[in-house]
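User: Hey, my collaborator sent me this sequence without any context and asked if I could get a structure. I don't really work with proteins. Can you help?
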Amino acid sequence: MRKIAFYISGHGYGHATRCIEVIRQLLASDPDLFVYIKAHVPGWLFTLNLKERYHHIPEKCDVGAIQSNSYEVDKEATLEAYATYCRRLERWAQEEARWLKSQRISLVVADIPPVAFEAAYEAGIPGIGLTNFSWDWICEPYTE
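Assistant: No problem. I've predicted the 3D structure and written it out in structure-token form, which is a compact way to encode the shape of the chain:
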């Protein structure tokens, strides 16, 4: 059985719902495919939309934006959280690369936690980004 890993941002459900549609199509087109999903998203979202051949691992894999409500971003807290994320990224990517190898993952797809791409590189497997923006593009105005 071929295995892929999806790393999905937990910031809102848009990332997960977009990936679920891709995962559904991949599973429908390949009966020998199994998908591991790493996302800090409630499991019911996957259970409701995916029926088989996947395993959800509810781990936070990125920062997203720190918000006090649906409309306001705490720019300072977001930048501080990303700084912390970046400080641990190398070690975290190495841990993830070991996990990818132990599960015999052949492809990483991500929307769009940076650790996914670093881990794929460390594991020597391809990584594909699935997104309509990147966090550096979102956070750039916060640094002004």
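In plain terms: The chain is about 45% helix and 20% strand. You can pass these tokens on to your collaborator as they are.
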